[in-house]
Amino acid sequence: MAKTFSIFKDRRYTFLFSASVTSQLGSVIGMTSLVFYLLDRFSSQPYLATFNELMSTLPSLLVFWLVGVAADRMDRQKIAANCDLISAGLSLGLLFSLLTNLLWLIFAMIFIRAAVSKFFAPAEQAIIQGVLTKKDYPVAAGLNQMVSSLFMIFGNGLGAVVYWTAGAPGAIFIDTLSFIISAILIRSLNLPKSVCLPNGRHRWKSFNFKTIGADFGQGFHYIIHNRLLVSLIASFVVFGIINGGCSVMLIFILKYKLVPDSYQFFSVWGGIVAGIGILVGSLLASIVSGKWPYKTMIVVGLAFSGAFIIAAGYAQNVVFFLALIFFSMLFVPLVNVAIGGWMPCVVDPKMMGRVESWSTPVMMLSQSLTLGFILIAFPSLISIESIFFFVGLLTIFSAIYYGCFVQESLKMIDAPAAE
After folding, report:
1. Cβ neighbours for 140, distance < 8 A, ≥ 6 positions apart
2. Cα–Cα distance measured from residue 274 to residue 87, given in angstroms and rounded to the nearest whole number
3. pLDDT digits (tens, 9 = 90+) for 95-118
């Protein structure tokens, strides 16, 4: 544990970590309240909650070809900070749309803000890669998992409390402030040119479709000539389907099957239970990350998580359901820590943005298709149990894929763990 927190001796990472936590916390509060608002105000139209999630994922398919090129060619620090500032302005637009009850404008603001936010992650990850050493990458990945678990424990609860006391507008106002604070933290960093501009300085006027296409193509060729990267990027299809299903199916099973009259209360507890599962799993993952091969972590995590997801869909009471959700989340950090510790070790820092720009749209495309399917099919064509079964079964199949068909590639993953 002391090794984990020693990473905060680096002031630059501390500021980046704090900025990420701040913006994520505000977003969790704001978006949780927005889902409650849609489900309460339009209770007979559950597709609106699904459409809300769809508006958050579709923008990746429009800007994915540009975000990685921007992170590798432009100032990464300015990109990250300006993303936060623009998102803050768009959050004010979202606040206005809520106060004026303009549903179409709510979804428009969510869509545009999601598009802007896609530029943040490649830039931030590339900066973190530049300020940390290779031995710190798994530690950073483990910390990200712990933070995610804490958001799941407290985020939905905070979002619900803010929604009950200040309504959705109050939550969106907090969301706006979080982006502003995050931008200030990032802009206050003193980063070397080699981190912010690893490929040298470029001017905006030098960007055109030809140069952007060439850079994006370089990222594609970099990936396809590395069997390990091909396997990993392909797996993001599965992760997208899992994320798409989980983003709506947990609250749907509470509202439309288990506890229709108190789904908000139990959705908070669902977030707490899932967060505790990920928090405990993160601690376990940090312990075994130096002892287990990355392949073992991935296969075990996917197989057990998928089995418990399927079981959760057929739970007949909310207590049993929450217990199964705990165990399904317990094994997720094994997968994320393994992948998060490996990625920076094998990707050239000069190519990190372009590689990252491929993983996100692949995942978001499958996530969007999943949400689109749920939007059309639920509840008229498929049951909530079917969603759980499909997501869980696909997770198990991905474990089988890693275990049986990626043997040669995953030897490369094990190398960093052995070091």
Report:
1. 7, 13, 128, 132, 340
2. 28
3. 998 888 888 888 888 888 888 887
Tokens linked to 2: 């002391």
CATH code where residue 102 lies: 1.20.1250.20
- Report the predicted TM-score, pTM, of the whole model to 2 decimal places: 0.63
Q: pLDDT > 90: what percent of the chain?
A: 7
DSSP state letters, 203-232? -GGG--HHHHHHHHHHHHHHHHT-HHHHHH
| Residue 210 Ramachandran class (φ > 0 left, ψ -120 to 50 alpha, else beta) | alpha
* Structure-block tokens of residue 339: 């992948």
Task: Determine contact, residues 399/306, Cβ cutoff 8 Å.
Answer: yes
- Is 4 a member of any domain? no
* Tokens 């599965």, located at residue: 238
Domains held by the chain: number: 1
412 falls within a domain: yes
Q: Which of 10-24, 240-254, 275-289 has the highest mean pLDDT?
A: 10-24
Q: How far is CA 122 from CA 76, 107, 358, in A?
A: 9, 24, 10
Give the residue numbers spanning the domain of 314: 10-193+205-418
Residue 379 CA to residue 382 CA, distance in Å, equals 6
- Burial of 166 from C-beta contacts in 10 A (0-12 / 13-18 / 19+): middle
